[in-house]
Amino acid sequence: MLKRVHFIKIMLPLLLVAPQIAVTIIFFMWPAGQALYQSFLIEDAFGLSSEFVWFENFELLFDDEIYLQTFWRTAVFSSLVAVLAMSIALVLAGFAERVIKGAGAYRTLLIWPYAVAPVLAGALWVFMFNPTLGIFPFLLEKINIDWNHYLNGGQAMGLVVAAAAWKQIAYNFLFYLAAMQSIPKSVIEAAAIDGASPMRRFWTITFPLVSPTTFFLLVINIVYAFFDTFGIIHAVTQGGPANATTILVYKVYNDGFVGLDLGGSAAQSVVLMFIVIVMTVVQFRYVEKKVEY
Amino acid sequence: MANIKLDKLTKSYGDTEVLHHIDGQIEHGEFIVIVGPSGCGKSTLLRMVAGLETVTTGEVSIGDKMINDLEPADRDIAMVFQNYALYPHMSVEQNMAYGLKIRKLPKAEIKRRVEEAADILEIRDYLKRKPRQLSGGQRQRVAMGRAIVRDPQVFLFDEPLSNLDAKLRVQMRLEIRKLQRRLGVTSIYVTHDQVEAMTLGDRLMVLNGGYVEQFGTPIEVYEKPASIFVAGFIGSPSMNFVSATAANGVLTLSNGTTLATNTTAAGAVTVGIRPEHLFPNKDGVLKIEVDLPEKLGATTLVHGRISGAETAFTASLNGINAASTADVLSFDAPPEFLHIFDAETGKRIS
Ligand SMILES: Nc1ncnc2c1ncn2[C@@H]1O[C@H](COP(=O)(O)OP(=O)(O)OP(=O)(O)O)[C@@H](O)[C@H]1O
Ligand SMILES: [Mg+2]
Is this complex's ipTM strictly greater than 0.90? Predict the structure, then answer.
């Protein structure tokens, strides 16, 4: 009898966590392990056999000028996306907080883009900026800007940055708004009585007080720009023109599934995995403790 | 000169009017206490003076200048909030200097003023600390400091002591009073605590349901409450009330007891007697059946009912009294201590 009870006691908790563990193992651990293993292999040109080469894939990777460029490009892309998405969200939240009439409607509208799937968001921007059909190239032509992101790498980068940032603004907005609403109203009022203009209140009181949120969002946004922008880039530019918008995740896909360099692609995945781990650690270390003020 | 004038001020939120035709004249250097029960509109009134709430109708003036449409920043006021509202990310020093920096005072002047205020309030040792590293009482001082460094025309206080423990409250109350006397700055102080109101104010504005019930010195308010509300609100323990019929200088209570009065009131009235104005006397006409004696040491509060009338009555007796439950005590209620109110309107008759 005692044994039976004991048995149930172990089984029940196991049973309850099993689905989670199964999901983690099947969709995260196993592929990660595979990627890690794969990154130590080099396939022959016909994909018939593979050879275990230890770190050769990584050595090749870090000697590769194009890969290093991609790294740099990704850094630029992520910073632009994060800064753009966060600063616009911050300003919008600052205004939304002051709005009294119809606040609910504004907020709901501002949150909608978040619900749009990345590929659809990409498609939207592709249509708006299509050099022959889109509305924006048409308008830009009037101020003598010749828009063609299929040929101009800088414009292509601008477009994917805008599309990626646009989608993330809603998320940042929600967090900023919540953070601002948790600042006691009397603190802002005290600043008003002390003579601070709305602008000054925003920069000297509100902004410092939402700094923990800023830090949290910075990590989230960089992770987003690193990984979740794949759909947008795939829909808008396919990494082109001439790799101008190929960021790390896109290169993993391109080298692996298009170029069929499985070992190299896997090595890139492992590098990305490492970056995520570092960022997650940073986030837990600092966000958990909150930014000091 | 920072005299404040409230002229037929009203405040409405949507269709509900929460303040009705508030009038009041506050002299330069006066300490005014706005007192009343929760939700009566005290904070709203104060915030209208501060410029944090818009004025619906009427006018607020400071120094004979109408300031209805002036931003809070331009009113030259300082306010101490109930939750102190210190800037959590700034040190005590920065908190106090914030308003001065905005006014672009020279650095040396800012330093001098902050240090002077810190000395007055005895917070010199905490200048480098953040608000969260301070106790409630210290935060309260910093909030006061932030107000006084500005050297404003008017101080506004919204229940600044309500978050402190009883002992500290008494101490800070004295300090605020001394500070205000010393600086001579016109002040408006909001509280729901009638003891605070009585001890601090040069004059009290007693507010109830958005109406000014009475505006007078603490002694006036105590001795000649303008309405049943004020009579019951000011004074502790609160005044006893009993209904009576008045005719020819005699008040007849429902149990037949008669009390002499020196007013000409006639008809249905409410008679108020403060517990401390009931004087024990074997031959007294007012008989009270004791329900519960509360021995407080210096005084004994006798809670009971008027014999035959079932009206709750409290008497405050000096020292420790031997009265016990079910005793019947007799009291004198001298005419000069009787407050007579119109039974219908609740307004004072004499
Ligand atoms: N923004 C608002 N919208 C609608 N009604 C409000 C608003 N602010 C205050 N009121 C109402 O106005 C009345 C007065 O509020 P106020 O805050 O001035 O009360 P108070 O006397 O300061 O009370 P307390 O002692 O509890 O602080 C209350 O009945 C309150 O419900
Ligand atoms: Mg209040």
Answer: no
pLDDT tens digits for range B232-257: 999 888 999 999 999 888 889 888 88
Residues from chain A contacting residue B88 (CB–CB below 8 Å): 187, 209, 293
With contact defined as beta carbons under 8 Å apart, do B46 and B217 qualify? Answer: no
Q: For chain A, what are the domain ranges? A: 53-292
Sign for the CA dihedral angle at A185, A186, A189, A194 comes to negative
CA–CA separation, A234 vs A254, rounded Å?
10
B303 part of contact set with chain A, CB < 8 Å = no
Q: For chains A and B, what is the number of CB pairs under 8 angstroms?
A: 61
Cα–ligand 2 centroid distance for B3 (angstroms): 23
DSSP string, B141-152: HHHHHHHHHT--
Which residues of chain B have a CB within 8 Å of the CB of A209? Answer: 88-89
Q: Would you call B72 an interface residue with chain A, using a CB distance cutoff of 8 Å?
A: yes
- List pLDDT tens digits, range B284-308: 888 999 999 998 888 999 999 988 8
Residues A260-293 have pLDDT tens digits of 777 778 888 888 888 888 888 887 777 666 555 5
Percent of chain A with pLDDT over 90: 20
Q: How far apart are CA A36 and CA A262, in angstroms?
A: 11
Q: Where are the alpha helices (DSSP H) in chain B?
A: 42-50, 92-102, 107-121, 136-149, 166-183, 194-200, 218-223, 228-233
Nearest CA in chain A to B70: A193
- The answer to whether residue B71 neighbours chain A at the CB level (below 8 Å) is yes
Beta carbons within 10 angstroms of residue A276's beta carbon: 12
Q: Give the full edge-to-edge strand order of the sheet including B250-253.
A: B258-260, B250-253, B240-247, B267-273, B339-342
Q: What residue type is B152 in one-letter code?
A: P
Q: Which ligand is nearest to the CA of B47?
A: 1
Q: Which CATH architecture has domain A53-292?
A: Orthogonal Bundle (1.10)
Which pTM was predicted? 0.81
Integer Cα distance of B143 and B163 in angstroms:
13
By the 10 Å C-beta count (0-12 exposed, 13-18 middle, 19+ buried), A161 is classed as buried
Question: Using a 6 Å CB cutoff, which residues line ligand 1?
Answer: B 13, 18, 36, 38-44, 192
| Distance, CA of A149 to CA of B123 (rounded, Å) | 63
CB contact under 8 A, A194 and B73: yes
Which ligand 1 atom lies nearest to the CA of residue B46?
A: 18
Closest CA to B56 of B48, B64, B47, B67: B48
- Residues in the 5 Å CB sphere of ion ligand 2: B 43
Per DSSP, the three-state class of A134 is coil
Q: Which residue has the tokens 């969709």?
A: A27
The residues near B248 (Cβ < 8 Å, ≥ 6 apart) are B266
pLDDT digits (tens, 9 = 90+) for A142-194: 887 787 877 787 888 888 898 889 889 988 998 998 899 889 999 999 999 99
Tell me the Cα Rg of chain A.
24
Of ligand 1's atoms, which has the minimum distance to the CA of residue B82? 27
Q: Domains in chain B and their CATH numbers?
A: 4-231 (3.40.50.300), 238-342 (no CATH)
- Nearest CB partner across the interface for B85, out of A186, A200, A211: A186
Residue pLDDT, tens place only, B278-290: 999 888 888 999 9
Helices A153-181 + A118-129 axis angle, to 10: 130
Compute the distance between CA of residue B350 and CA of residue A201 in angstroms, rounded to an integer: 54
